[in-house]
Amino acid sequence: MAAPHEHQYVEDFENLLDPGGNTILNMLPGEAREAVRSGDPGKVRRIDGSFAIAEKKGKEVYLARSIGRPMRYFLAKQAAGPLLVVAERIDEIFSYLKEQDLHEQFHPSYTRMVPAHHLTRLQLVGCPDPSPEYRRYFDPQQETLDGDLDAIGARYIGALAEECRKWLQTVPEKEPVGVLFSGGIDSGSVFLVLYHLMLEMGLSPQRLKAFSLSVEGGTDAKQAAHFLDQLDLSLFLEVIDVPPGEIDYKKTIRITEDYKSLDVEAATMTEALCRTIRERYPEWNYLADGDGGDENMKDYPIEENPELTIRSVLGNQMLYHEGWGVDKIKHSLTYSGGLSRGHVRTYAPARHYGFRAFSPYTLPNVIEVSEGIPFIRLTGWDPEELYGLKGEIVQRGVKAVTGLEMPVFPKRRFQHGAAPREKTDELFADDEMEYRRYFASLYA
């Protein structure tokens, strides 16, 4: 259901990206394209919003994206020289190569994902293919704020609110706005900030709705109801009931083009939610969500990942956002790291069903505040202290910005809250290799 692509064929460059998929909040689309084309990371940093932009300048192509939108490329061989194909998705690249009778060169592992927060430069100069050059355009400093949790919360949620305000100004006046809502800290804070802003901006809050998924009585729907009841806002809740038989991780793998277990599972629930919203509301366009909030607050169980320690999580800039970094051996070219890769769990299902998704926690202006939080000083390298910090900061921030007392519940992954845990175990594979094999079979 995505918008039709606008093709830009210039000699050795095919740009399949749909410019309508960008949500740029502070400048015209042409100004954003020119910022990327300049090759100047400082100019790219000034683009506010979610975007994926590719621009050709002579024999150089510059590519830049935020976390909020994926971008891939593939270099094909022709007698006249290399052909660079840039697209949002792997299957779009493959389809184009088939049209050009170049598909025998293709394998999904040969595609490259542009890493978020970097300006990537490619040279179209033939064999051997030059390696991409990465220059960081977003470089937030760590541990720059003091330890006052009230001040940190006000600044963090204040940044979130400012991005949400800009976004609401881009939404047509009568269009409804939905929030993918579990009643957790991230979706809860996004909902309350949007509610507060709509009142403040003189917009009708009746346009707002909180959509919660329930698969055979999952706990998220109950939590969502409890959250809104405490604030006397229960009229905004709409529970979306989906039977277990309609949960299909294979369809989700085709949509997300990925196979990491936790992301596949979360995306499968998002697919079910977006699909059912679309069925109920054929004309609905705008959805917001809280994806990225966990990464910003480094709020994942470290003990569940043998590669991580509290020191690696707190000591490496944006580790959960970007993985180990483009200059590290662990960096994959086929997939970038962290949320730069994993955000397809939220973005791709929404895009597939024709929604314009907005994830304000993934925007650089919000991430910049979170990276400045003095996590080491506040936690003393204690994981339990780290896990408790997110609720404290966000709750205080929501209070400072909106005046509302946000309820805070224990953290739970989407796939574990949308359905009972025993049912979740039945719906998904036991081993990530099953997901990998299925994805590989799509191009066998």
TrEMBL record:
Ranges where the Asparagine synthetase domain occurs: 174-307
Bilayer-spanning residue ranges: none
Recorded superkingdom: Bacteria
Xref: Gene3D superfamilies: HUPs (3.40.50.620)
BP-aspect Gene Ontology terms: asparagine biosynthetic process
GO molecular function, one term: asparagine synthase (glutamine-hydrolyzing) activity
InterPro entries, sorted: Asn_synthase, Rossmann-like_a/b/a_fold
Protein name: Asparagine synthase (Glutamine-hydrolysing)
